[in-house]
Fold each of these.
Amino acid sequence: MERSAQRLGRALIVIVDDRVAHGEYDDNVGPLVTELLEEAGFIVDGIVPVEAETVAIRNALNTAVIGGADLVVTVGGTGVSPRDVTPDATQGVLDRPIPGIAEALRSSGLAAGSVDAGVSRGLVGVSGSTLIVNLAGSRSAVRDGMATLTALVPYVIGELSGLDGN
């Protein structure tokens, strides 16, 4: 597909939740992220539920990068409990972190009253030419995080794709 047909590009959503991954619980956040990404101009390739295990998360991220996704949004597993390993898994995949976006997500989330976003250890960075973003797991953190990302992601995607004119 041509970039113009894709508008901003292709995105993949990774839901980090043991219960969703095992089919014990319906995913109520992935469809919200899909809707928000599509409104922002992305083609969403799918939602991948994974267990809160470092290897499972890393495998999903590496598969997305190898598959040519422009953006990967992980949801969940960014807090401080022992099962919150998404940032640890993500760190092993990133070539270059973008701490300013991660801090903007935490700041805007906390300002909006989303405690899980405010205390999130989530990372944002680049692996190859893929932007990877960790969001906290609540619907409010996702809504606020996507609002913050909508302003920043087009610039980063443009830089990574070389279509920014530089």
Note: The longest strand covers residues 42-50.
Amino acid sequence: MERGAVIVAGFGFRSGAALPSLRAAFALAQQGQPPVTHLATAQDKLAALLPLAEVLDLPLMGVASDALTAVSTPTRSAASLSARHVGSVAEASALAAAGAGARLLAPRHISPDRMATCAIAASANLQEIPT
């Protein structure tokens, strides 16, 4: 991995989503992906993601609403479109936080209880990882 590259796990979640839901979505999205360097979500939901950031010892990034809606996501969730005007909060958070030219490594994955979603994005300067 090139120095300075970031791998961001972006999250979307319902009010009341607890740490087990966030961890489950993260575990599903992370399978087969490079190690995550940052977590991200909508700015107004940062406090709810803080426990996961602390458990994983990863920095947490908040994404402004206008930055979320500026990102086009492959997933088109009716709930996300209605609530946030974006197809997937998880995908948009990951892509926006990873920076200009970022690419999605893992589309959103949904926790088994359907309370949280997680997607993984990489900054543009991430080199391909040998397999």
Note: Helices lie at 19-30, 46-56, 65-69, 78-84, 89-98.
